[in-house]
Automatic annotation (TrEMBL), chain A:
This is Phosphomevalonate dehydratase small subunit. It comes from the Archaea. The active site is at 61 (proton acceptor). Its EC number is 4.2.1.182. It comes from Methanobacterium spitsbergense. One of its GO terms (biological process) is isopentenyl diphosphate biosynthetic process, mevalonate pathway.
UniProtKB/TrEMBL annotation, chain B:
Residues 4-396 form the Phosphomevalonate dehydratase large subunit-like domain. One of its GO terms (molecular function) is lyase activity. It comes from Methanobacterium spitsbergense. Heterodimer composed of a large subunit (PMDh-L) and a small subunit (PMDh-S). This is Phosphomevalonate dehydratase large subunit. It catalyses: (R)-5-phosphomevalonate = (2E)-3-methyl-5-phosphooxypent-2-enoate + H2O. It comes from the Archaea. The keyword Lyase applies. CDD domains: AcnX. The lineage of its organism: Archaea, Methanobacteriati, Methanobacteriota, Methanomada group, Methanobacteria. Its EC number is 4.2.1.182. Component of a hydro-lyase that catalyzes the dehydration of mevalonate 5-phosphate (MVA5P) to form trans-anhydromevalonate 5-phosphate (tAHMP). Involved in the archaeal mevalonate (MVA) pathway, which provides fundamental precursors for isoprenoid biosynthesis, such as isopentenyl diphosphate (IPP) and dimethylallyl diphosphate (DMAPP).
Amino acid sequence: MIKCRKISKGCAKGEVILTKYPLSFLGGVDPEKGVVTDSNHDLYGKSIGGKILIIPSGKGSTVGSYVLYQMAKNKTAPLAIVAIEAEPIIATGAIMGEIPMVDHPESDIYNLINNGDQIIVDANLGCLKIL
Amino acid sequence: MISMHLTREEEKMYAGEEGPAVEKCMEILVALGDIYGAEKLVSITSAQISGVSYKTIGDAGLEFLEDLSKDAHVKVPSTLNPAGVDLKIWRELGFSEEFTKKQLAIVEAYQKMGVSTTCTCTPYLVGNVPTFGSHIAWSESSAVCYANSVLGARTNREGGPGALSAAICGRTAKYGYHLEEERHPNLQVEIDTSVMGSDFGAIGYMVGNQVGGGIPYFKFKKSPSTDQLKWLGAALASSGAVALYHVENTTPESKWALKFIENNKVEKLSIMRNDIEETKEKLSTTNEKPDLICVGCPHASLEEIRKVAETVAGRKLKNMLWVCTSISVKAASDRMGYTQIIENAGGKIVCDTCMVVAPIEELDYKVVGVDSAKAANYVPNMCGIDVVYNDLENLIIEDK
């Protein structure tokens, strides 16, 4: 179990999709399909919908919060988000869309978790578990 | 777990005892507070909410606001940023019905929550005037700069959803510009030349680029007017992330700020006439004459509209002229006869919107002339249209 800080309440279990690069939701993700459309990003062409997104941080326009909300409405949003350092855009969007989110994991999760791993994110308790 | 301390009342709001809208908004405030390292929340007396134009927030924003408006209501006087169209004469200006329908739905959702739908970036000209030292949650960058610097109120540069959450909870996270120790100047700027008109925007643009998120302390030869401070701040906030500046012998915290200039070695910048002229040239993307002139960024005061009327009185303009302002200031302009003079010259007073947030790329204009450095900075990127930066008189083409 890895301790984290709660950003947006809720609990989710699923498969990890991981990136080491910040992502802008406005212009960087298609909210209809949940696919990353930023051709300079390492997740380009991949779907983040229905998965647990591990990301260093968000970036870009504050409108990105609304995009994350729309993805939740369209059921194309990540099941949960784990950020190293949450910033306002992604944090606000996660709360708006009721997507569980934590940040500040106590361990170096990039060394412990790989793409495709199954994990549980429990934002209410402020922790994540690798299954 | 969250890190911030909440009062008993705030705990209840956070736990959902005041309904799901307050619960969600509290969750946003607490998350933002934790991210920025705030120890607690602070009660606010006013909010200014951005995220209004359909062009920027789209269907996602509309849907969020409609959902929230089902059971949310603001706790403090709150005003709204400009929308994407003039809510009344949109058809006359050439905006599409499809866009306008969505825009009206957004404004209606805010209205349902009790937000005043004045749709302006100068809320301080329409009665949303916080007092010195009061804590507020404002999200329009130029208005933030004005409230902190000219009025001496205290706000961070809030995002749209953050400011709305603050309005609904009557609180915001206490960090940054809410704290006295975060309001010290860290660059002194001396203007070595007499300045007027579009000089202020150019100076703001230049200094904003240099100082980023810092706090400049200005020395002008002559104390600027409130309109001039408005242009300066808007430019500072658009090229940099400036939320507060001080002007010697002018702004209310300048005496206090001067102590830090005298005590510390604060970096110094001198601005000469040729720096200002160079910046003005850089702000234009073309040498062509504009087919649309937009003034009123930030929204024009009655005094600015008077000057526009004085400039165009008895002339026939070949280019279209928009004077952007709020519905309240337009009412005063109508009564003073300025609106009629401007319309006689071929111009229009445009309310609720501006050249930055309106979809002017959908209209048939090729080059936009502006007297605002903020607009010159944003229009090419946000609308994909060429821009010319100059004073109104130099932008006009007359039909002789």
